[in-house]
Write a structure and sequence with these properties.
The structure is a homodimer.
Chain A: H1 2-25, H2 32-39, H3 43-49, H4 53-81, H5 89-98, H6 105-123, H7 125-151, H8 161-181, H9 188-202
């Protein structure tokens, strides 16, 4: 079905154009007009699919969360394929956390674009709902694994799965923000270590951490 | 010197107009024109002081960090006035952290405005420098108190002052972001408790936490 492939491809190209404008000039410059210029589409053609800049931005944010969902699904499939008992909850949560750390270009772009959307999500209802769905997906993924650890008695006394998920999610977003603003103060290696430190403080027993 | 008082007063009024526009419509709508309309100034008069929207935003961000600096100085004076040995490092850092949590209207406004500035700071050099100075001020304040605790052997094995300061700063920014986006998932009381949990994980001995 080449038509569908085309459609998916063209949407991705468009999203990349939105992201380039956001990265280079800031989200306040991402309009139907500037993205049309960036992507080589005519303003009319673009406006046919996305009548407003907010619709266009909503689409670009959605694709970011789609990427996260894809990485999440891929990781879950990988983890499920491992022999039972070979991956600790500590390790599973660590791998989950790495889905949203800027460990490669795609994740760095993800972090940057999602951070750019945060303030706009405060004042635009549709973007806010989208942001909530994406964040909810991540929070649920973290909570599920923390719940396994909690039921197994692996967490330090008093640690509750849902609260640990919220703590970790806030830390990850804060770390990403600081990395983007000051990569030398918060290099990627430091982000990984600070997340490890947070997990070590949450788990009663300290498993060997596998690299990756 | 009524003239200086007037000047300070008018600057504050102007900053409030900028913040109102940011809070209501989003930072992308904060221009010389919209802020002039909001504040009752003429566009020409406003442009005399702030030739560009970025200059105007820089001024509004500066005032946010000024507020933080004022709260910091007030807290340091208060802490210095207490009898020696009555305030633990744990308590000092906790009080410092509360300077940037949304515990009253002014701090909530602070958190919201500073979050709105983050993405813009990524693409505007002058705003980025300002953001760096403000964040540097906070990081230094946290590091200083963590260093006192580190020298006194109060931190858990392996904890280093500078790293703990960075960890806490990232957590605070992440918590503020999530509170703004979802105050019901991250109520202020939960923010306070998550910070306490982080501090308890960092300090070897667990002092009684004083309310406030």
């Amino acid at each position: 079905m080449p038509k569908i492939v085309d459609h998916v491809q063209r949407r991705a190209e468009l999203a990349h154009a939105v992201w380039r404008v956001i990265q280079r000039d800031g989200i306040e410059h991402a309009s139907v007009r500037t993205v049309a210029a960036e992507s080589g589409w005519s303003t009319g053609a673009l406006r046919h699919y996305f009548p407003t800049s907010d619709a266009l931005l909503g689409f670009a944010m959605e694709l970011c969360f789609d990427w996260i969902a894809e990485r999440l699904n891929r990781l879950r499939a990988e983890q499920a394929a491992r022999p039972a008992g070979t991956t600790s909850s500590f390790q599973r949560i660590r791998e989950l956390a790495h889905i949203v750390l800027p460990l490669d270009d795609q994740r760095l772009l993800n972090a940057r674009v999602l951070m750019s959307f945060m303030p706009r999500s405060l004042v635009h209802e549709a973007l806010h709902e989208q942001e909530r769905r994406g964040t909810g997906m991540l929070r649920m993924a973290f909570t599920e694994v923390f719940e396994v650890a909690e039921r197994a008695g692996e967490l330090v006394p008093g640690a509750r799965a849902d609260r640990q998920a919220r703590q970790l999610l806030a830390l990850l977003d804060g770390l990403n923000t600081h990395h983007l603003l000051a990569p030398r103060d918060y290099p990627v290696s430091e982000l990984v270590e600070l997340v490890d430190a947070q997990l070590r403080a949450t788990f009663a027993a300290q498993p060997e951490v596998q690299s990756g």
